[in-house]
Amino acid sequence: MRTRRTAAVAALLLALAACESAPKEAPQETSGSLEEIAERAGCAPDVQTDASELRQTSCATDDGTYVLTTFATDRGLREWLNQAKDYGGSYLVGRRWAVSGEVATVERVRERLGGRIETTEPHGAHPSDTAGHH
Q1: Which residues are paired to 91 by β-bridges?
Q2: Is the dihedral of CA 71, 35, 50, 57 positive or negative?
Q3: HSE of 69 in the Cβ direction (CA atoms, 13 Å)?
């Protein structure tokens, strides 16, 4: 009887340890206006671009500095993201919104906004393109 109880306690302790070491899942992806998303991210928005197709603000929070952009359409988001990726960088992407900034900043903002992280290298000359050429 004691062996079974000891085994059950050991299994419970292992399960608890696994839960503590498991990475945190992002919350459900947020949605809303630029102001609503900024508030959830802990940013006081100072709208810099206010156009019919997109709205944009810079944020400086404890997470770091980043740009939050909202889009009128899914297609607008995808087109913007495709162009932005030409320059490389890290992007936290939700439905009709994106956050751009340093990798660590984007990861911290994701803890409040959800979404998925997309990271790309800038397009251009690769080291192998010029290696050995003088």
Answers
A1: 100, 118
A2: negative
A3: 23
Chain-centre distance for alpha carbon 78: 15
| Kind and range of the H or E run holding 70 | strand 64-71
Cβ(76)–Cβ(69) below 8 Å: no
Residue whose structure tokens are 């800038």: 122
Q: Which two tokens stand for residue 119?
A: 């990271």
pLDDT classification of 72: cutoffs 50, 70, 90: very high
With contact defined as beta carbons under 8 Å apart, do 59 and 113 qualify?
Answer: no
| Length of the chain in terms of residues written | 134
Q: H or E stretch including 104?
A: helix 103-113
Q: Is 84 helix (H, G, I), strand (E, B) or coil?
A: helix
Q: pLDDT for 24-50, tens place per residue?
A: 566 788 999 999 999 999 999 989 999
Residue type, 79: E
Whether the model pTM is above 0.85: no
Three-class secondary structure of residue 56 per DSSP: strand
Please state the separation of Cα 69 from the chain's center in Å.
12
